[in-house]
Specification:
By secondary structure, the chain is of the alpha/beta class. The protein has 2 domains: about 5-225 and about 440-465, Rossmann fold (3-Layer(aba) Sandwich); about 230-435, Glycogen Phosphorylase B (Rossmann fold). About 45% of the residues lie in helices and about 20% in strands. It has helices at about 20-30, 70-85, 100-115, 135-140, 160, 170-175, 185-200, 230-235, 240-250, 270-280, 305-325, 340-350, 365-370, 405-415, 420-435, 440-450, and strands at about 5-10, 35-45, 50-55, 60-65, 125-130, 145-150, 180-185, 205, 210, 215-220, 255-260, 290-295, 330-335, 355, 380-385, 400. The strands form 2 sheets. The protein has a 10-stranded mixed beta sheet, sandwiched between helices. A 6-stranded parallel beta sheet has the order 13-12-11-14-15-16, with helices on both faces. Helix 2 (about 70-85) packs across helix 3. The protein is globular, with a radius of gyration of 23 Å. The two termini are about 30 Å apart. The model is unreliable at about 455-469 (pLDDT under 50). The structure holds GDP-alpha-D-glucose. GDP-alpha-D-glucose binds near residues 260, 262 and 361.
């Protein structure tokens, strides 16, 4: 198998303490050699393109520092104030500034220039996520003829929303520099097809290959998974067990509802709190019988919309607790702090309900982690937003509209009284898929597509169309 060059905004090579994505990419890089390249997270006075090489747990990484202006315009700007909100359907929050678009192009050109000498002729290159959409074109412009794939970890927005981005067509056109473009779900892929057909005159053939202005790119829906076996084991580890005991003891017999999300407006935390408040009001007999533990480590604190959501949630949690708390009970434990993964596994296992209600999410790995952490003899219930990519794979969760406080309240009520036999049947269906399509499955499936040349493939060997459901 060819060497792999992974390119992503941040590099997090390493072992089991990391998330599934880092584990899977690290495993592939260890097995076949290759390099993981990206931004160091550091700022330098003047961009030099100096590469910092490291080897972490047998994985070679190469990182580069960026200038302050790059960080402001590319990372805090175009990536997190333009694309992130727009791609999560929040055009009300999206900021369209030429300086951001310019900084984004400049940073991507800098990444391309820097990584160029590291790419050997037989390598396959895999670019990750919305920070780096035009990177493939930048590499092609510099003469790279290798197979290059792109995977989008967030949703692809509906055509009419994307059309509000001034440079939408130009940005999307750069994607035809890739051989393969991957999405988590058929829905995101369909939205992409809708845009390129209507706005750019592209066509898509029966093999899922898009043709646009003389270039082609193969489109695949390939849902990311977690490192399921490892997570199941982690949920049985000593640390997880101790965390489980500690949390259970603190509940004194009450049922735990858990949410774990980066503090991000796409995760529907405000709506979740309102749904829970509704539940408390509609079910007074349940008051004092449940606790909502919301773990929400802060993220992207330099961006104003993130500061706003943080203070909104603090206000809301304070109001709900103020209105409903008793001498010996607080309805919401709102924790702005991160925990180690094995502790999280223990928390998931202690929770009777996993409340995963993003307003929009490319996939959502917390839903899968919650399922993997459950006790097979007494599994909890997953309440999942219909608007998370994960919902396509998890029809046995209680699927809800996260905007509806009534639906959230009803689902909480239903989950709390769900008989063991139904909980087991739903959990079994979900865990089977979470095990089957784990993160290694995702990696291998995408890589297979990337390593299958497009030219003439349709005539000789039929292209394998990836089915996700
Ligand atoms: C993007 C897409 C897509 C959370 N709190 C703690 C912690 N976490 C971990 C979770 C989970 C991960 O962070 C979050 O993953 P998600 O998938 O839920 O969401 P995003 O961060 O928005 O990820 C998403 C994903 O990319 C992959 O393609 O699924 O749709 O938005 O693993 O457990 N981890 C630790 N402590 C915490 O407190 N250690």
């Amino acid at each position: 198998m060819s060497r792999l060059i992974v390119i992503s905004n941040r590099v997090s090579a390493g072992g089991g303490a990391q998330g599934g994505l880092a584990v899977a990419l690290s495993a592939a890089l260890r097995a076949n050699g290759g390099i993981w390249f990206g931004w160091s997270g550091e700022v330098t006075e003047q961009f030099t393109g100096h590469i910092n090489f490291q080897r972490t747990d047998g994985v070679a990484t190469a990182t580069v520092d960026l200038e302050e202006q790059d960080v402001e315009e590319y990372y805090n700007g175009y990536a997190n104030r333009t694309l992130w909100p727009l791609f999560h359907y929040r055009i009300d929050l999206a900021e369209y500034e030429r300086s951001f678009a310019g900084g984004y192009e400049r940073a991507n050109a800098r990444f391309a220039e820097t990584v160029l000498p590291l790419i050997e002729p037989d390598d396959v290159v895999w670019v990750q996520d919305y920070h780096m959409i035009p990177l493939g074109r930048e590499l092609r412009n510099r003469g790279i003829a290798n197979r290059i794939g792109f995977f989008l970890h967030i949703p692809w927005p509906p055509r009419r929303l994307l059309a509000t981005l001034p440079e939408a067509a130009a940005l999307v056109e750069t994607m035809f520099a890739y051989d393969v473009i991957g999405f988590h779900t058929q829905e995101w892929l369909d939205s992409f097809v809708d845009f390129v057909k209507a706005e750019m005159g592209a066509t898509v053939d029966a093999n899922g290959v898009a043709h646009c202005n003389g270039r082609t790119a193969r489109l695949v829906a390939c849902p990311i998974g977690i490192d399921t076996r490892a997570f199941e084991e982690m949920a049985r580890s000593n640390i997880a067990r101790r965390t489980y005991e500690k949390v259970r003891a603190s509940l004194v017999g009450r049922s735990l509802i858990v949410g774990v999300d980066r503090l991000d407006y796409s995760k529907g935390l405000e709506e979740r709190f309102l749904g829970y408040e509704r539940f408390l009001e509609e079910n007074p007999e349940e008051r004092n019988g449940v606790v909502l533990l919301q773990i929400a480590p802060p993220s992207r604190g330099a961006v104003e919309s993130y500061q706003r959501i943080r203070s909104t949630l603090e206000g809301l949690a304070g109001r709900i607790n103020g209105a409903h708390a008793a001498l010996d009970w607080v309805p919401i434990r709102y924790v702005n702090q991160g925990y180690a993964r094995d502790e999280l596994a223990g928390v998931y296992r202690a929770a009777k309900i996993g409340l995963v209600t993003p307003l929009r999410d490319g996939m959502n790995l917390v839903a899968k982690e919650y399922v993997a952490a459950q006790d097979p003899e007494d599994p909890g219930v997953l309440i999942l937003s219909r608007f998370a990519g994960a919902a396509e794979q998890m029809p046995d969760a209680l699927l809800v509209n996260p905007y509806s406080a009534e639906e959230l309240s009803d689902a909480l009520q239903r989950a709390l009284i769900m008989p063991l036999s139904e909980r087991k049947a739903r959990w079994k269906a979900m865990i089977e898929d979470v095990r089957k399509r784990d993160v290694m499955w995702w990696l291998e499936t995408f890589r297979d597509c990337l390593e299958t040349p497009l030219d003439g493939a349709a005539d000789s060997a039929p292209i394998k169309v990836v089915q996700i459901v």
